[in-house]
Q: What sequence folds into this?
């Protein structure tokens, strides 16, 4: 007949399990620290790469798309903010902001013909025509990123549009008021700084629209 383990045996087994647990936690911590170190190294190398190739990133759409893919792999989003290192180095945040405004303008101009739905290829074609001085510098990937940035923007002020697009106050107000009249924007005057916010609730992810319909 097999004897049951005594108190000493149970204590030894518990101690062994505790040791295994501690070893496992230490191994996991070492792996996590190594991954963090590698990620920091990758980000540093990415910054050096951006410094070296910033002209190509700004001017070459294919190169710019590959750069975005590199950033995504290390958890960096150059479009997350219009301030800070990436904005100062590359200025691509303002580039996509300008594209977004032009895309909205094109959609408004063609709405009578297409009901507000436009093919991505056609949109890019019209966008390149509008940017005649730099036709080859806009890709479909750029259009999609600009639209995504519009989703994140939410609202703008007159001063912000003037600064980013170098527009006059009159032109800026006319454009925003047109969006307001077309039902594509709402105004919010309830802020202490007295600046009117133009909100764009119509700009939302397709997934949310599908969920609402279902």
A:
């Amino acid at each position: 007949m097999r004897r049951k383990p005594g108190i000493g045996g149970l204590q030894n087994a518990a101690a062994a399990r505790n040791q295994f647990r501690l070893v496992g936690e230490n191994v996991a911590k070492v792996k996590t620290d190594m991954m963090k170190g590698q990620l920091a190294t990758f980000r540093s190398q990415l910054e050096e790469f951006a410094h070296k190739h910033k002209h190509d990133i700004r001017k070459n759409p294919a190169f710019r798309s590959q750069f975005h893919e590199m950033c995504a792999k290390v958890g960096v989003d150059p479009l997350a903010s219009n301030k800070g290192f990436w904005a100062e180095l590359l200025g691509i945040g303002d580039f996509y902001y300008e594209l977004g405004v032009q895309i909205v303008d094109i959609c408004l101009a063609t709405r009578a013909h297409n009901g507000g739905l436009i093919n991505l290829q056609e949109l890019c074609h019209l966008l390149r025509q509008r940017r005649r001085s730099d036709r080859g510098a806009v890709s479909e990937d750029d259009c999609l990123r600009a639209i995504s940035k519009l989703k994140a923007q939410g609202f703008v002020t007159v001063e912000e549009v003037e600064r980013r697009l170098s527009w006059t106050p009159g032109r800026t107000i006319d454009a925003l008021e047109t969006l307001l009249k077309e039902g594509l924007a709402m105004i919010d005057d309830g802020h202490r700084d007295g600046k009117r916010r133009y909100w764009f609730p119509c700009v939302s992810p397709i997934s949310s629209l599908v969920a609402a319909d279902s």
